[in-house]
Prior knowledge:
Distance between the termini: 29 Å
Shape: globular
Helix content: 10-25%
Largest sheet: 6 strands, mixed
Structural class: alpha+beta
Amino acid sequence: xxxxxxxxxxxxxxxxxxxxxxxxxxxxxxxxxxxxxxxxxxxxxxxxxxxxxxxxxxxxxxxxxxxxxxxxxxxxxxxxxxxxxxxxxxxxxxxxxxxxxxxxxxxxxxxxxxxxxxxxxxxxxxxxxxxxxxxxxxxxxxxxxxxxxxxxxxxxxxxxxxxxxxxxxxxxxxxxxxxxxxxxxxxxxxxxxxxxxxxxxxxxxxxxxxxxxxxxxxxxxxxxxxxxxxxxxxxxxxxxxxxxxxxxxxxxxxxxxxxxxxxxxxxxxxxxxxxxxxxxxxxxxxxxxxxxxxxxxxxxxxxxxxxxxxxxxxxxxxxxxxxxxxxxxxxxxxxxxxxxxxxxxxxxxxxxxxxxxxxxxxxxxxxxxxxxxxxxxxxxxxxxxxxxxxxxxxxxxxxxxxxxxxxxxxxxxxxxxxxxxxxxxxxxxxxxxxxxxxxxxxxx
Length: 444
């Protein structure tokens, strides 16, 4: 085992061939110069200078309206701005989007429509100060104009803000992105003047490559007669899926833990308790690369990946398999066949999958299948839900349910009755994926 890990780590050193020099910007401890901020929307001023906020903690949050996790974090940051008031000022910055598109999102996106934070459109002056490749990216500027930290949004919490305001020593890891990373290169170097007659079969499995985005990349090199596929900074569950199926099926995913049986010491290594955080990604994601002769069939490639990843996972002490197992489930049934209780009245489509101020979930002129998808994918703590209503998946419906009912079977049953639906609890044999660590011991 030690030898295999050593091979992976030695190969990891060759990754330097992917990297270019970092783009120069400010670092922690640097003094921030006078910098003009233009094109500010959703704010009392259309322009400002960072010097205008001396004496306050300034947070500059680089995001994009297309980045789901960035957008979901903004209401929390907005509430922190209100909590700390004049002691701090947050600027959100989107570098590549047009102003009208940002305004549209501020009006329509459920996370953004009540946002009170200023949004800087363009903000190239700020990006020159704090260059980045991966969002979210947050620069912390202290009341003395000194850069205190560079992080992701997961560090933006009330306790962390108070630490900076108190002048406490901050030793958080500095978010350092890798610029101009070549995602297409194999993670190993072919030796020159060596004639390989039967084609290249090679793979690398290593930990998170810090500062690199979690991308998949496929390269065909006709001159070398190879294909290379890279999976950067991906979850163990993704690689377990590939080890069992030879390709990604989506059945084994951090968003579908109800398909999983964990016999592991820490399930948080596989499924984060919260959204992905910078530290979770560093500690719990891996990079996998393989290079094969390009004349292999799809089945031959899948068989190679299954064998290869099974071996790599074994090196780090993980085994996985699929088995049928009786599980407690909920079955959604129809108690009335009157479509008028469900069918849409044709209003503007709206699918609100999150709690809003009224704690409602709406399916307005949306597919009925969205309800079951939501219960299975977005509501933890309840069993898998089978749909036996025989309602066509593409039937458009109007439904409004109280969110808190989803975790309480009697309340959910009562809420569903007005739509001619019911749920019963039973047991069903299901295909489950078992993940076991070699050193796992059953708790007595």
